Structures are given as structure tokens and as C-alpha cells.
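User: Last request for today: this protein with nicotinamide-adenine-dinucleotide, please.
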Amino acid sequence: MASYEYNESNQRVLFGEDSLSKLPSELSKLGCTKPLILTTPSKASYVDDVAKLLTGQIHVAGSFTRVTMHTPKEVTEEALEYSTSVDADCFVSIGGGSAVGLGKALFVRTGLPHICIPTTYAGSEMTPIVGQTENRVKVTHVDRKAIPAVVIYDVKLTLTLPTNISATSGLNAMAHAVEALYASDANPITSTFAIKGIQTLSTSLPKIMQNPKDIAARSDALLGAWLCGKCLAGASVSLHHKLCHVLGGTFNLPHAETHAIILPHALAYLAPNIPEVMKVLAENIPDSDGNAVNGLNKLLSKLGITYSLKDLGMKEKGIDLAVETLLQKPFWSPRTIEKDTIRELLKRAWDGKPAQ
Ligand code: NAD
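Assistant: Here's the final one, the structure of the complex with nicotinamide-adenine-dinucleotide:
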């Protein structure tokens, strides 16, 4: 009989159309009356959307709309100072993984409750992983208390997510699930979430490309993102996330796009050592024809992800540095990390050739 460990959180999740309207009652339940709203500059309009909902005792204490990707320490400190100056008693992050990341960083520093309203598919709202970038180096640590107290998934907020970001953040989510299937601590709970998350995202994302306002497809994708986020929270990562971390950290490549490009290549590298996982993936990724790497290659092309690491701005000489950096911190992998083969993998991803 299998024995395994699984960490559950006591997070509350609300899912649906117009579920943002439940924010006031969720604030009341937490005893909060002065939320600080956190979002990215391009979605500053969310602050008004939230303010309009709040009545009576509860009002917006302030808004911080300079959220930046990868949680730079100086931005967190600026937001913290502002939060103290307006006497906020909780944080409401609304937006993608960047806004959620700032909410987590502020929670770690203050202990104030954090309500999350995710509007991409990155999945950070489900995880205890807290990131911070300082002097161009991104480090992460795990703090189970940093899992946001409440998550409100409002499908309608995702209707405006551009198709390119929908595609890349959806693949970022799928990567969490794919890695959970072969993780050293894989377990039946995360594997169940992973299979459903992969199935749901790989069928809904192409529909979103055809019609970004397809509420049923958006709803499936958001559920998929939730499930995939649970995978990242419940199982360890391996080659795919380690490579993306190196590429993002060393060359400042954009997070979701990098995940989208690398996923089929990392899987192709590990494939010989994970036959059972490859079988499950091929059964759940449409058009795989018995080979999940083919299925992922086709999915990327359906989602318009035809660009390469070179197109993201990485220089060819960076490939060797990326390999060296990856090898500096050994990690568990189903297949031994072979320098030359990883170099070939990265060269294909840099050239924009399909994974094989
Ligand atoms: P993001 O949060 O930076 O958002 C990308 C862009 O999409 C932004 O310009 C944002 O304003 C815009 N946007 C968001 N929602 C929108 C909507 N509904 N309509 C229109 N525009 C919208 O990108 P992301 O990919 O969601 O998150 C990436 C960040 O999340 C990275 O810093 C990454 O490290 C982090 N992350 C952390 C974890 C974790 O567990 N800690 C997991 C995944 C990602």
C-alpha cells in the first residue's frame, strides 16, 4: 500500500461569475475594514471596481498600482511603507501572479490577512512559495502561512486577459501539473489534480484563442489553473521549473513565456525515464497521438507560441551560462542531468525548434 504525505491548507476559495461581489462579506468575516488594493499599472482600473463594492464600515485604505513582476524587494518595501502610512488592515491583491506575489510578500512582513483575486492562470494564490528579487537575483522560500486566506476566482475578470497572456500563463499552470506527476513526492492527490488540470487547460486554451469571451472555456481554464496551482503547492518541482528559474533569474526572461517555451523540451528530456507519466499525459493532451511531446508541440502551435528563447532576447552565448548555472545547484530529477544533452535541449528552445 502506498504511503505519502500531503499538506492541506485552510484556505477559503470562492469561484464563479461575479464572485468579486462577495469581497465585502469576505472582508467582514476576517474583521477587516481598511484594505490596501494591490495591482499592476495596466489594471489600475481594478481599484475603482473594488472601491465601488465597498460600503458602510469598509472602505479602501489606499491602492498600490506599481506591482512589478518577480517581487523586487524595493517595490515591496515601498508598498509596505505606504500600507503603514494609510493604516491598512489587510491586503487585496487583484491581477496576475505579480500582484499575488506582492500580497504574499506583504503578508510575510506584517501578518495582515491577504485576499487574492487572480485574473491570470499563474496559480501563485494556491502555493506557499514566496519570491523576492534583490540585485537581479530571485530567491524563493516556502512559508505555509503565506498561502492567502481567501481566494476569489471571478471568471468575468479573466475575459479581458489578452489571448497571448492567456496562452502563456495557462502553460505556466500546466507546467506545475506536469512536474507534479513525476515529482519525487508525487502522491495520488496532486496527481488527480494534475490530470484534471492538464486536461481542462489543454482543451480550454485553444477555445479561448478562438473566442476570448467564451465564458465556459474561461471558467474551465480558471478551474484548471486552480488545480495546477494546488500541484505546485503539494509536490516538488524538477528540471522544468529549475531551468525556467535559471533563465528568468540570469537573463531576466519573462516568466510565463519562458515556461511556455521550455515545457515540451523539459518533458522530452525526461520522457525516457517516465513512461507511465508519458502515457497518462498522452491520454489527456488532445492530438498527442500516443506521444505527449507531440501533443504539447501541437498545443503550443495552436496557442500561437511560435517564438523562441532567442526571440525573448536571450543571447546564444547565454546557453552555456544557463547550463553551468543549472548544474551548480543539484536537484532531484527522474533522469540524470547530462550537461551536453541539456545544452542541446536549450539550443533547440533558443532556435525555436520543436521539442523532440
Ligand atoms: P503578471 O501578474 O505579471 O501579469 C501579466 C500582465 O497581465 C500584467 O501586465 C497584468 O496587468 C496583465 N493582466 C493580468 N490580468 C489581466 C486581465 N484579466 N486582463 C488584462 N490584463 C491582465 O503575470 P503572471 O504570469 O500572472 O505572473 C507571473 C509572476 O507570478 C512571476 O513573478 C512569477 O514568479 C509569479 N508566480 C509565482 C508563483 C508562486 O507559487 N509563488 C507561481 C506562478 C507564478
